[in-house]
Amino acid sequence: MLAHLKALIVILAVALPVFWMASAAWPATVRPEIRRWRWAFLLVTALSFVTPSIWIYAVAMPAVVAMFLAADGDRAERAAILWALLLMTVPNVGAYIPGLGGISNFFEMTHSRALSFALLVPALVMMPKKGPRRPGLLGVGTDWFVLAYFVVQIAVMAPYASTTDLVRQSFVLSIDTLLPYWVFSRAFSRPEALSSAMRAYVLVALILSVLAVFESVRRWPLYDAVSVHWGIDWDMIVFLERAGLLRAKGSAGHSLMLGCVLLVAWGWWGVIRTELKSKALVWLGTLGLIAGLGASLARGSWLGAAFLTIVMLALGRAPVKHLLMLAIGGVFFLGIAAVVPGMSFVIDMLPFVGNVDSENVEYRQRLLEISLGLIRQSPWLGVPGYLNYMEELRQGQGIIDIVNSYLAVALTTGVVGLFCFVGMLASMMLGLWGVKRNKDAPPEGRHMATCLIATTLGVMFTLVTTSSIVVVLQLTYMLAGLGVSCARLYRPERQSLHPAIGPMAVRQQQ
């Protein structure tokens, strides 16, 4: 049997039981939705493995997903939820669309962009421009930071790019960043739809967690078969090991990216697990996500997940009690790992403590030193051609890996761009904090705001250790958009007439 068909069978064999357990775990009211998600996941996955070309896939996929938008209801909401479900269903492999005349190529068509054209663009058209609790353009503080960062990125490219290339880069950047943010910040009109988007994403993350364990045990990167079958030489097809173990990557393309994907799912699991009917299934899902994070061997995401958990407990009920229990459990586990034969490798794998791949820590320290030196020389709008000054960091694969998203942002767009990027996430969390601290907000809204704040801080922590490549950028903007939606949907509505100024307001209206 062909290798890509074998991989497809394994993926489907894992996905079907996960969807079956999800249908049994969640209330009957959401089971029809989960069944639709199951068919969407299976069809898109099979399409990616069976079609011989990315162009056939990109053309056929909109017709497949259109079937799941035909039902009654808010189609913009359904499109956004389906995008969250399918983003990690297929590797973000891409190929350039050939150009015409003097244009060598238009842009790189990837899975995420094909998905955005099929779902987010229609959602943008279908949703009302303004309405109750749906602000217009620049109606939210986060909008200003998102737009400002977009403008800064284009501005720093303008002196060095041709008009054609500038238009191309602006278009691609809009599809990858502005479109996900705008749709996820505006498309939802019901709080229940936010939970559905998180539930859809977490379901696929649970499938990827099981597949990550399978990849690590069998030393078989399943999703590499997609790019090989499409005939695309993807630079993400790298067999990475750590301490003799395969670093699983699933559909994320790289173990670091898989760690980020599962980190977001770990944060959103705090919202979704409260809906489950069985505590046994809650524990099963929790252990599944932990196993997937472990199989990725992405130590930055491990620290990010730990930080996320601490923040969530600190912002939740009885924080002192839960943090103390977590600390006791962590010390107990490390103590057992230190004395039990065969478990010492757990400590050796930890960053800054263990000895495994200690050269990676040294590389990151040297990257920080060189980058800060360059940024000091040109702090405001980035360092043009900064890679030319980093030759000593070139690795055996022939690349200079900027494994720190904040350094990449500062080197490319300077302190101005870094302020806008961080400000986007900080302003979103400020809105969520307003919901969490508002006693008039419903309890489920305050809990969701807490989980989103913790998830955002966990992602921001992890971005110190990884590059914003493959789908990390799309995940970040989706997270920012969902945070804005949570803040606007759960914020209690203000009274149209304040009692203290009621009579005056009435006289003015007359």
What does this structure look like?
With 510 residues, the chain is mainly α. It folds into 2 domains: 1-127 and 194-294, no CATH class; 134-187 and 357-491, no CATH class. Helices cover 67% and strands 3% of the residues. The protein has 19 helices and 4 strands. It has helices at 3-25, 31-50, 54-66, 75-86, 111-126, 141-157, 163-186, 191-218, 224-230, 255-272, 279-296, 299-315, 319-339, 344-349, 358-377, 405-437, 443-462, 472-490, 502-509; strands spanning 94-98, 105-110, 241-242, 245-246. The strands form 2 sheets. Strands 1-2 form a two-stranded antiparallel ribbon. A hairpin with a 2-residue loop joins strand 3 and strand 4. Helix 1 runs antiparallel to helix 2 and helix 8 crosses helix 11 (279-296). The longest helix is centred in the C-terminal third of the chain and has 33 residues, at 405-437. It is globular. The model is unreliable at 495-510 (pLDDT under 50).
